[in-house]
Design a protein that fits this description.
Helix content: 10-25%
Number of strands: 17
Low-confidence stretches: 202-211
Radius of gyration: 21 Å
Order of helices and strands: EEEEEEEEEEEEEHHEEEHEH
Largest sheet: 6 strands, antiparallel
Number of helices: 4
Structural class: alpha+beta
């Protein structure tokens, strides 16, 4: 509903920034820079070519300094909070809220003996979870890609709406979905962390930062799964647990 940034009917994006003293401003959409032009009042504007439908991270570059767009919200991606905008796909609504029963996304903290600190997870409970106190559910552990964190599945990916819609269409069974940050170091060690991307031969790559070995797998087995089984009405056996992920999370799933 915002005037800027705005997605047009033909999938272009219009960016605007007021910076009267700036000499050059660009809209940088994942290493593709679009030059902005300044009017007499000091307002810079650009309209991009049509973008591929989906979620795009971007930043504004003012005289060589990248910054988040003050007219947009930030999401955790590519290793830090980043501006983002979604270009909708025409005729597609599987990831949008519909008039169907909705589940809940809950934020929980638990203590890990592996890392020696408190960790946060997001947990989706399906529609009717609280109204059916005797029912138990299978659990999916869903892992994000490198540079992102546990919030990406719902904030950028609308996973909760996708699940609501799939369950309503009987294309998925009601399930609990657990989303956790996929970086973990042993107590006393520097944990690995999401690294900002670099462009190599025109391709975006995410490299590793200095830090300890990623022991997230141990966190899942020794801390996260027991915590989830204690806290929620799960079907607590291997036949009713699954793990899936994107990119780095896919490697963790393997």
């Amino acid at each position: 509903g915002a005037e800027y940034p705005r997605v047009t009917d033909d999938s272009r994006v219009v960016f605007q920034l007021r910076a009267p003293q700036a000499r050059r401003v660009q809209a940088d959409i994942m290493a593709t820079k679009h030059e902005m032009t300044k009017d007499d009042s000091g307002v810079w504007t650009v309209t991009t070519p049509p973008l591929v439908p989906g979620f795009h991270y971007y930043q504004l570059v003012v005289d060589g300094t990248p910054m988040n767009d003050p007219a947009s919200r930030a999401y955790f991606g590519v290793g830090r909070d980043f501006s983002g905008i979604e270009v909708p796909e025409k005729g597609v609504d599987y990831y949008l809220p519909r008039d169907v029963p909705h589940g809940q996304v809950r934020t929980l903290w638990y203590r890990s003996t592996v890392t020696g600190d408190w960790r946060r997870c997001l947990v989706y409970t399906p529609p009717g979870y609280d109204a059916s106190p005797s029912r138990r559910y299978p659990v999916l552990y869903l892992q994000h890609g490198s540079g992102e964190d546990e919030t990406g599945w719902t904030e950028q990916g609308h996973a909760h709406f996708i699940l609501d819609n799939l369950i309503a269409e009987r294309k998925a069974v009601p399930m609990i979905v657990v989303m956790e940050k996929g970086y973990a170091g042993r107590a006393g060690q520097a944990p690995p962390s999401a690294a900002p991307p670099v462009v190599v031969n025109g391709a975006i790559r995410v490299g590793g930062r200095p830090g300890g070995m990623n022991v997230f797998g141990e966190v899942v087995i020794r801390a996260l799964i027991p915590f989830i089984d204690r806290t929620f009405r799960t079907l607590a056996d291997r036949d009713h647990r699954a793990v899936a992920g994107l990119s780095m999370g896919g490697n963790q799933a393997c």
